Predict the 3D structure of the following.
Amino acid sequence: MGENTELIQTVVKAVQIVELLDREGAMRIREIAKSLKLGKSSVHRIVSTLKHTGWIIDNPATGKAELSYKLFSIGSNVVKRMSEREVFHRHMETLSDSTGENVNLGVLFEGKVFHIDKVESKSPIKVDASVGTPTSSYNTALGKVLLAEKSDAEVEDLFRDVKFVKTGKNTILSTSALLKELETVRNQGFACDDEEYAESMICYAVPVRDADGNANYALSVSFPKYRYDHKPEEKEAILRLLIETGKTLSRP
């Protein structure tokens, strides 16, 4: 029996529609059908069903279909059920208090980083990554430290069809450059984003390992570069505290 013979195609199409609306925002039925190369009548039936169940709503201003807050509620509940979350958050607060900077916890899913918790710096200048928002992995410290857990072949497969986009002056723009960077991450045990994701911002990240040694989560501290231009010892202290916290949260 083939691997996909038991898939329910209507459910697959519904998931595709939800993921499309997540990427693109509000859309009309014909726009959804064109983008997914599906029939308009099929899309109309699926969207109507998703509206009935509360997953999709009509934007009152445009009449376009968009995702409802029901998805946000479900996603939030998934994060709340993480057994380690409260412990992680307490240590994240301590790390943020000690460094005065942003602290984020992330996971890797389908080649992207999802921020699942954060403690914000009190400084008005910071990179704000919303909880639940996916970001690219090739130009972020969180992403690179999690990608470093994979083999080169797995990374190449993940980025086979990815278009690298320059978001900072040092953004990695090829799979070969990424693989070289990941080797450095493996050797040093942490990742650094030095103006790769955003101009004038630096981020360090370390893995958080489970009892089997797997890095399911990554922890990071991000800060404006100018703040430590003439204080290298303070920047090193931030990295040291981050590494210590990562080891504390990792299970023996």
Notes: The chain has two domains: 9-72, 82-249. Residues 82-249 form a domain with the Beta-Lactamase fold (CATH 3.30.450.40).
